[in-house]
Design goal:
about 55 residues; mainly alpha; oxidoreductase
Length: about 55
């Protein structure tokens, strides 16, 4: 899946739908914290806390 702007959320297959969902969730993380260095620093903290993961999603 390219990084081009999405024209639709409809996909041809369930697999493409899953790939789209993953891509959107990854982009959500980048929007929430745009700095890669900070994401890497914070990952060990939030990745072990289910409440943090749920809150950002």
């Amino acid at each position: 899946m390219s990084n081009d702007q999405l024209k639709s959320l409809q996909t041809q297959t369930p697999e493409e739908g899953f790939e789209l969902a993953v891509k959107l969730s990854q982009q959500g993380v980048e929007v929430t914290q745009p700095y890669e260095e900070i994401r890497q620093m914070l990952r060990p903290v939030y990745s072990r806390n289910a409440d943090s993961l749920i809150a950002v999603s």
